[in-house]
Structure formats: C-alpha cells, structure tokens
Amino acid sequence: MKLIIGLGNPGKQYMNTWHNAGFLAVEQIQKELDFSDFKKDAKLQAELSEGKIGREKIILAKPQTFMNLSGQSVAAILNYYKLTKEDLIVIHDDLDLPLGKIRLTKSSSAGGHNGVKSIIENLGGQNFIRLKIGVHTDLRAKMETADYVLTRPGKDEQKTLKEIIKNTAPAIEAVVRESVESAMNQFN
C-alpha cells in the first residue's frame, strides 16, 4: 500500500493558488485513475480517496490542517494504515522549479517548503518520495514568498499548470509500477 499526499490549504479562498498545486495533482490522479470520491475523515484531518495502481492499493489524501501543519495529518494517516515513510509520496508546489516542470526526488530536504518541513518534523526523517511541481514565474522575484504562493496563476500560467498537473498521474504510476529511479529518468 502507498500513501500519496497532495499538499495545499483547505478553503475556497485558497482554491487554485500556487500553494494548492498538490491538491490539484491528487484530484487529477483521482479522476484519471478512477479512484473513489474524496471523503472527509475528521479523525485523520484529511480528505481521502482510495484506488489501485496495478495490484497496489493507493490512498490519496489532502490534509485539511493548513500547509504549515501538514505533518500532523500525514503522521496520523501513516499510523492509521500502519505504513512507513518509505510508503509515502508527497506532491507539492516548488518555488525553485520553473512553471511547467515536475521533479521527482527521494530523501531530499524541505528546501524551505513549510508543509514538507512539517512532515519531516512529524515523521522524524525525510526518507520519502516527493513529486515537486514547478510554480516559479517572473512574478516571483517581485513578491514575498508568502504572498506569491497564495496568488492565483494568470490565464496563460493556469493553462501551463493544468498541462503539467496532467503529467502527475503518469509519473506516480511509473513510481508505483516500476521504481522511483525509473520514473525520475522518464519525468525529471
């Protein structure tokens, strides 16, 4: 079994912001791979969806704790399903990666991402797979980080973001069916 976490912030005011790229990605995976509808689980502080990739059972999750506390929900879900960090894949926005790019990594640092930092702190390590979605645009240099990640992409940027989000499902399938190394060679 694998747990795939999409990072974001709950609430309408945060919908379709750069920081919610992880939510958008797991929603895309849920639709494309015909997983169950997302259902709220108050105890686990997340919305969950289930399905399979090949013979592997997959849990998709959108933590509802807000970004900076994501680790609380992730730890609760891992404990509930008796999974380890090695069973975890986290999908999130990345300010250092240009818009239109995705990058798979394994055991990398938080890189300044507070949601990932929270997960590392709550799990006591960084030995998990991450799928980073590039959200860096020219506007990034003109804004504070917190302001930038909570803005919505412009029309052209939205189109590019949607296109790259469509690549997340095949990338995740490659990780699960083959290996993270194989998926890195294909999608990085």
Give an overview of the whole structure.
- This protein is of the alpha/beta class.
- Helix content is 37%, strand content 26%.
- The chain has a single domain, classed as Rossmann fold, CATH 3.40.50.
- It has helices at 21-32, 70-81, 114-123, 145-149, 155-166, 168-177, 180-187, and strands at 2-6, 39-41, 46-53, 56-63, 88-98, 102-106, 129-136.
- Strands 2-3-4-1-5-7-6 form a seven-stranded mixed beta sheet, sandwiched between helices.
- Helix 2 crosses helix 3 (114-123).
- The longest helix is centred in the N-terminal third of the chain and has 12 residues, at 21-32.
- The two termini are 24 Å apart.
- The mean pLDDT is 94.
Brief account:
With 188 residues, this protein is an alpha/beta fold. 37% of the residues lie in helices and 26% in strands.
Features:
188 residues, alpha/beta, Rossmann fold, 7 strands, 26% strand
Helix content: 25-40%
Can you write the helix and strand succession as a string? EHEEEHEEHEHHHH
- Give the second-level CATH assignment, the architecture: 3-Layer(aba) Sandwich
In whole angstroms, how far apart are the ends? 24 Å
Tell me the structural class: alpha/beta
- What's the total helix number? 7
Whole-angstrom Rg: 15 Å
Write the layout of secondary structure elements.
Blueprint: E1 2-6, H1 21-32, E2 39-41, E3 46-53, E4 56-63, H2 70-81, E5 88-98, E6 102-106, H3 114-123, E7 129-136, H4 145-149, H5 155-166, H6 168-177, H7 180-187
Helix pairs in contact: 2-3, 6-7
